[in-house]
Amino acid sequence: MERVNEIKDMIRQRFVKVATDPTAPQRHPHGPATAKKLGYDPAEIDSLPASVT
Questions:
Q1: Which of 25, 34, 35, 36 is the most exposed place for a label (fewest CB within 10 A)?
Q2: What is the pLDDT along the chain (53 residues), one digit of tens a residue?
């Protein structure tokens, strides 16, 4: 169970990092273009505020 908590903490830290500094370089694709490539509805993505995407 300890390892599960470590993994959850690492994920939590990653989300905090992206949320607090969204313009910092990221290792993984992100943003509206990536969401569209993953199959999310382009109209829905475009309707969201830039601060969300």
A1: 25
A2: 899 999 999 999 988 988 888 788 877 787 899 999 999 999 999 999 987 87
For the record, the structure tokens of 13 come out as 């830290």
List the structure tokens of 10: 């690492």
Structure tokens at 45: 């993505």
Please give the Cα distance from 18 to 23 (Å, whole number).
Answer: 8
Cα 2 to chain centroid, rounded: 25
Q: Judge whether 42 and 32 are in contact, CB under 8 Å.
A: no
Contact (Cβ atoms closer than 8 angstroms) between residue 25 and residue 46:
no
H helix runs in the chain, sequence order? 2-20, 32-37, 42-47
